[in-house]
Design goal:
- It contains ten helices and ten strands.
- It is of the alpha/beta class and 265 residues long.
- The strands form two sheets. Strands 6-7-8-3-9-10 form a six-stranded mixed β-sheet. Strands 2-1-4-5 form a four-stranded antiparallel β-sheet, with helices on one face.
- Strand 1 and strand 2 form a beta hairpin.
- Helix 3 runs parallel beside helix 5.
- The longest helix is centred in the last third of the chain and has 18 residues.
- It is globular.
Length: 265
């Protein structure tokens, strides 16, 4: 299917004997911004790690840009992974390198481009995220929002076909978070790429999602357009979108996620 960039079928993931993902199906189309959401411990991060090839599935299949990650040989796997970008939750910038050097790193490792071409491409990527003047700065010299934008520039260094984002708004104030959301949408529209965003930030979800997949206890409990997911009668979906920790069947889960013992006072 030419318009499908990710196809997950029957994905099962285990950590030892513990089943973390149980029969997950997921389809992401070209140009789509798909949000993966759910409460703490639902399997979001584990799913993301499988989608970017960090973990092999215990069962099921993951087709990324028409390559089966479970059966591909190493050169084929590395080739397809070179066509994706990853925006990590904390940015994962190297503090010992300037922003210019951080953004240049993927190009230096995966291409044979001349230095002057890489330098020009770095300038373009930093300008794209509004950091053209910050090129000589080091990550510790930046605000949280600037670090996220710099990390986004690095994730875009190789013009990926698919961009993955892990909690991009985490730790940001509402205004900075909204600006980052708008930047993601503008990049998606400009380059026509697919995006998979893992987040639990309600405002961001409602601002950016074309389609959404909600997980609970390793299973997909809602999938579709954001309106379709929000309309689901599932109690966990209702608790999530209505911010009601006291909803039936969710109270013990919430306290478990918070690490509390003995339940609420």
């Amino acid at each position: 299917m030419e318009d499908v960039t990710i196809q997950v079928q029957g994905l099962v993931a285990r950590y030892g004997e513990k089943v973390v993902l149980d029969g997950v199906d997921l389809t992401v189309k070209k140009g789509e911004l798909r949000v993966i959401l759910g409460g703490s411990g639902c399997g979001k991060s584990t799913l993301l790690k499988h989608l970017i090839g960090l973990l092999p599935p215990s069962a099921g299949s993951i087709q990324l840009l028409d390559v089966d990650l479970a059966t591909a040989d190493e050169p084929e796997k590395q080739a397809v992974l070179g066509r994706i970008g990853m925006l990590f939750q904390g940015g994962a910038l190297l503090n010992s390198m300037t922003l210019h050097e951080n953004v240049a790193l993927p190009m230096e490792e995966r291409t044979h481009l001349p230095t002057e071409v890489i330098d020009e491409m770095v300038r373009m990527k930093l300008a794209m995220v509004g950091l053209a003047e910050a090129s000589p700065l080091f990550p510790p010299e930046l605000s949280g929002g600037m670090r996220k934008r710099a990390a986004l520039a690095r994730a875009m260094a190789l013009d990926p076909a698919v961009l993955f984002c892990d909690e991009p708004s985490a730790g940001l104030d509402p205004i900075t978070s909204a600006a980052l959301d708008e930047l993601l949408l503008s990049i998606r529209d400009r380059f026509g790429m697919s995006m998979v965003v893992v987040t639990h930030e309600l405002e961001s979800i409602r601002r950016i999602a074309d389609r959404a997949t909600m997980l609970d206890k390793g299973k997909v409990i809602a999938d579709g357009t954001l309106a379709e997911v929000e309309a689901s009668p599932h109690p966990m979906v209702r608790a999530f979108f209505d911010r009601r920790p006291e909803a039936e069947g969710t109270r013990s889960s919430v306290w478990s996620a918070l690490g509390a013992s003995g339940g609420p006072p």
